Amino acid sequence: MTSFAELQAAHQALLDRLPKGKPSEEYLGAVLAHIAQAIAAAANIPASRDRDQLRANLRFWASYVFDHTGAYPDTTLRPSVLADTGAVSAPPVPPRPLRPLLSAALGVSLCLAAAICAVVFIFREPLLTAFEPTPTLTAFVGATAPTPTPAPGVTRTAPPLVQTALTPPTRTQAPIVLTESSTPPAPRRILMLAEVSHAPGEDCAARTVQVSVDPAGRVPPEEVLGALAELRFAGSHEPEAAAVISPNGASLSVESFTGGEEPETYLLSVAHPALTFSSLILQFEPGCANNQVQVRYAATEAPSLLPSQPPPGANLELGWSLVAWGPAPQDEDAWVAQLELFARGGDGSYIYWDGSSFTTQEPDLLLTQRACAAAHRAVGVSSGGISLLREIILQAPFCPHAPG
């Protein structure tokens, strides 16, 4: 029987040897085996606090597997067969002598049997007539018999790895495509995913971003309005430009820090009380070649790390800034980015959840993904008796095989 402490130790051991680049099939197999072991062992883990921690751990590893294979593994914990009393289990009660009890029970049983036989003999005809069974036929029409559920303690077989091919890169950054897995599918929500295109501008020192939103018939047009688009320079929490999205979209413009002579990197993020917009890493090269950016968000039903639409955070906000990003040095077909979480509102003191653990400091997140693909992370914050859960969808402008 695997204990909660042993599962935590196995979780930490996997974290200690987490690959910086593309994981090997052996490592992914170890992750899937750990997920299957935790699911099976949950039947003997009754404490709510321990089960919540297990769910958090499994969401982290499921996200990791999804990022590298396109398959979202099952993370449903088995129901506990033990009661969660919150107290130390009491020692078993010593058994009472059985001989007197058996004698008394035998006597009562004989009396009841005699009485039942007498009643049945007297009323046998009416009873047979009233309760004569009617033949019935049960058949499965258009379906198969249900699959039996494995007994507690039996380890589930880890789902097969699903290899997904990269979308062919183009000069124009393609819309984010979240690959569907085979079994089980990831929860689906309406996400606002973006496609990006660049154009030259007249003023080399000015960087301009035009944002438009297409409800695509999936959400009412008025619901996408009022979102706040912010453009932050890498390494800063404070926006250099911000605009509320109207029916005509939003326009954000900043002056170059280097006069257009050096590359500059910004993070475009859009805050909305209910919808999730992807964040974009925008890199402006020196000169005027790509300092005019068109960003088109479209409502898309796509796999998500959150089971339902996150509710508004009342008086609590959670955001993220870009610290650094670039191609992965050990893998020419991958990119890596560092984000930092920050919060506003609440009571001014914050407990952050970075997707796997809690901290009171503003945590750094390291995200990595294949070229031209998007990275995902579920994050949260708690403050003043309220909490907030958000999903980060980060798109990097890295398609190394795009035509020059």
Give keywords.
8-stranded mixed beta sheet; alpha+beta; 404 residues; 5 helices; 5-stranded mixed beta sheet; 16 strands; single chain
Tell me the strand order in the biggest sheet.
Answer: 4-3-6-8-16-15-12-13
Report the sheet-strand fraction: 25-35%
Secondary structure class reads alpha+beta
- Average pLDDT, rounded to a whole number, is 76
Low-pLDDT stretches: 86-106, 118-183
| Main sheet record | 8 strands, mixed
SS element count, helices: 5
**Element-level helix/strand string:** HHHHHEEEEEEEEEEEEEEEE
Report helical residue fraction: 10-25%
Global shape? globular
Radius of gyration: 30 Å
Number of strands: 16
Rounded to the nearest angstrom, the distance between the terminal CA atoms is 58 Å
Explain how this protein is built.
With 404 residues, the chain is α+β, with helices and mostly antiparallel strands. Among the domains are: 4-69; 188-395, no CATH class. It has helices at residues 4-16, 25-41, 48-69, 99-122, 124-130; strands at residues 188-199, 206-214, 228-233, 241-244, 250-255, 264-271, 276-277, 279-284, 292-303, 316-327, 334-345, 351-353, 358-359, 364-370, 374-383, 386-395. The strands form three sheets. Strands 4-3-6-8-16-15-12-13 form an eight-stranded mixed beta sheet, covered by helices on one side. The longest helix has 24 residues, at 99-122. The chain starts with a helix and ends in a 9-residue tail after the last strand. Mean pLDDT is 76; it is low at 86-106 and 118-183.
